[in-house]
């Protein structure tokens, strides 16, 4: 039987904030990560090393990384921090911050390979010891979206990953790989071929990716489409434990699609506190499924997430206020109103 533990990957500080127009102070971003790390969440995507011309909001991610390495918040358990990057330049920027703070003679031992499921590596001086840092690469299931998001073809995106993968493995870093627009594309329409997603997932796993996050960037996914995609991935030989699902909630189907995925044995889900977010290159698409909504739903099924829904709901209210957005989590608002 599948495990009753569901791993939530909190992507709010990255996917949630990247599309905000006004520049958010780095202190607010760090406070968000710190607060999330106190809720029981064990995996947090904390920023991205992308071109500041393309996604200006993420330009100060290296400051967040340096802060987390130098002054990791005391947390009840180790945290795995994830960092999104598209190319070798992004990896260089990530590694120079990481190696300066985490490696060499800085007093922080270089972390050994991290096991990926939120477990530990190295020590970095926090009370909880043993945080881990991982990188995430990203491609997409349609040519049009790959061009808009990363200015290259799908094949070129895979070529870009080869040196990233090699150097990440050398540095002992886990690598997650996203496949965007798996259930609908803003440029090519709602019918994306699930076999293309499967083919990409197989290539990325063969290349050495530790986990594939299959993303419904546009929120065009429905229950039957999600089921068909998951069946196609299984038929291609992809293990459920190698998959995460990443739902955006544009059409309000993210929870339904999460339940379909759960029934298919998926146990890792990406979400953003307060339902923050959207992709700058997916016009009209709204935020990720709210972490509070997922946690509330999973707990109602008797599943465990380790997350304290009240603490998480407070963080959702706080960040919504800080950036002047409405809180998009129904469960979060209801929890706060109790
Ligand atoms: P490009 O313009 O073709 O790149 O962009 P380039 O290599 O020609 O470089 C242009 C300039 O950018 C140069 O600077 C480079 O140095 C610089 P200049 O010489 O002109 O001063 N540059 C960089 N700077 C910092 N970090 C870097 C970097 N790379 C180049 N890594 C590129 C190609 C891939 C860089 C660009 O398209 C890009 O950054 N794309 C990322 C866009 C993005 O942030 N999208 C959102 C994240 S993905 C997402 O949200 C989906 C997800 O949530 C899943 C889902 O829901 O689908 C993950
Ligand atoms: Mg996303």
Automatic annotation (TrEMBL):
Region (Disordered): 102-128
Domain Pyruvate carboxyltransferase, first and last residues per copy: 6-313
Alphabetical keyword list: Lyase, Metal-binding
Catalytic activity: (3S)-3-hydroxy-3-methylglutaryl-CoA = acetoacetate + acetyl-CoA
Gene3D superfamilies membership: Aldolase class I
Alphabetical list of CDD domains matching this protein: DRE_TIM_HMGL
Associated pathway: Metabolic intermediate metabolism; (S)-3-hydroxy-3-methylglutaryl-CoA degradation; acetoacetate from (S)-3-hydroxy-3-methylglutaryl-CoA: step 1/1
InterPro entries: Aldolase_TIM (IPR013785), HMGL (IPR043594), PYR_CT (IPR000891)
EC number, as in UniProt: 4.1.3.4
A Gene Ontology molecular function term of the record: metal ion binding
Pfam hit, one: HMGL-like
A GO BP annotation: L-leucine catabolic process
Protein family per UniProt: Belongs to the HMG-CoA lyase family.
Protein name listed in UniProt: hydroxymethylglutaryl-CoA lyase
Organism encoding this protein: Karstenula rhodostoma CBS 690.94
